[in-house]
Structures are given as C-alpha cells and as structure tokens.
Amino acid sequence: MDSGQFDGLIRALATRSSRRQAMTMLASGAATGLLTLFDRRGVAADDECKPLAKKCRKSAQCCSGACVAGACGCPGGTTLCNGRCVPACADGRLPNPATCACGCPPGSESVSTETGAACLPICPASNARCAETCVPFCSLGAPHPGACDACVCPPGGLQCTLGTGYPNSDTCCAADQECCRLGPVDDPTAIIVCCAVGTCVPGAGCVGG
To answer: Where are the domains of the chain?
Structure first.
C-alpha cells in the first residue's frame, strides 16, 4: 500500500459510510502484500541448489548443473554412484559400488588389446588367453602351429621353437625336459622333440638316456 492509498484509508475511516470501502482497501492491501511475499519466496526457491533426484524445471536449479527429465541428475560424461556424480567408465567397465572406481564386471578381466584396455570374459581353467581369445593348453610333446593360434603351453611347460621357416616346430615340453631338433637344420619340416635332459643330439633327436 502506497502513501496515497494510506491517506485515502484514513479519510474513509473518518466517515461511517466509507467504512465498508476502508475494509475493502485493507483487504486489497493485505492480499497484495501476501502475493509479493509468496512471489519473493518462489524466486528464492528457484535459486536454491537442489540435490540429485529432486524435481526441477531448469538445470540452473540443480547442484549438479543438470535437470534431466524433470529431476536433478548427472551431467553428460558422468554417472551416478553412491549418491554422487562420478566420471563415466569406458570399455565395458562399471563403477565399483563401494569405491566408485571403474573396473570390469564380475566374470571378466581387463585385457590389453590393439585399441586399448577392454573387459573380456575370464578364460576357463582349461584355457589360457592368446591376445583377445581363449585357447586350450597344448599337449606336451606334440608339435603345433606357431604363436598361440591353436594352443598355449600349460603352466610350467617349456615352449620350444626353431623359429621362422619351420612351420611345425613349435612344441611344449615338460619343465624337466629339453627341446631337441629332429631333422637337418636347413630342412623346413624339421620338428622339435622333448628329450630327457642330457639325451638330445641336435638333428638326431633323443639318444640314449
């Protein structure tokens, strides 16, 4: 109520016929004051920092800076963990529920690949990892293709090879054996046999023992 309205109210109260008008003026002034108060409170509420999951109409209302589908949520590039926004995990990793640190899901492990680390299924007990693939263990003493395309030596096994130019020379021997070439050194069909220590004659294979 401004000063003009207040003076009018005083004059109206001086006469009996204007009392009703004065009461109307009082009610109008009170309503205007309440509306102004509620409007100010509404503006203040809009400016308050709202926590995650609270209803919102705009991102500026949220402590996280993101109003998502009518509720305060995590901004892009982050994810919710233990009631807070943390950097989103990549390469199939998930945040640890206790620490929020990124890690591979249960039943998988982190493996280095050509494009970086990735979460891949853990190999079964009878297999081992060859790059990104699980392959079986090789049979001891049996030649196999090079590298780990077909199989890998079992734990404790001795990987033997004649190297490039001998496609069938890769063999796994037992830890208490030695690798022995069977065949001429210039023969690409030469292979490796597993001999007891001290019984190998290069080219001839295992002798005596």
So the answer is: 3-47, 48-88, 136-206
Distance CA 114, CA 133 (A): 13
Q: Are 81 and 100 contacting, i.e. CB atoms less than 8 angstroms apart?
A: yes
pTM: 0.50
User: Helix (H, G, I), strand (E, B), or coil: what is residue 205?
Assistant: strand
pLDDT in tens, the chain (209 residues): 555 554 554 555 455 545 556 455 545 655 555 445 445 445 445 668 999 999 999 999 999 999 999 999 999 999 999 889 999 988 778 888 888 999 898 899 888 887 778 888 999 998 998 888 899 999 999 888 777 878 889 988 999 998 888 887 899 999 999 999 999 988 999 999 999 999 999 999 998 75
Closest by CA to 208, choosing from 185, 184, 180, is: 180
- In angstroms, rounded to a whole number, what is the distance separating the alpha carbons of residues 47 and 49? 7
- Max Cα distance, the chain (Å): 138
Q: Where are the beta strands (DSSP E) in the chain?
A: 67-68, 71-72, 78-81, 84-87, 94-95, 102-103, 108-113, 116-121, 127-130, 133-136, 158-160, 171-173, 177-182, 191-196, 200-201, 205-206
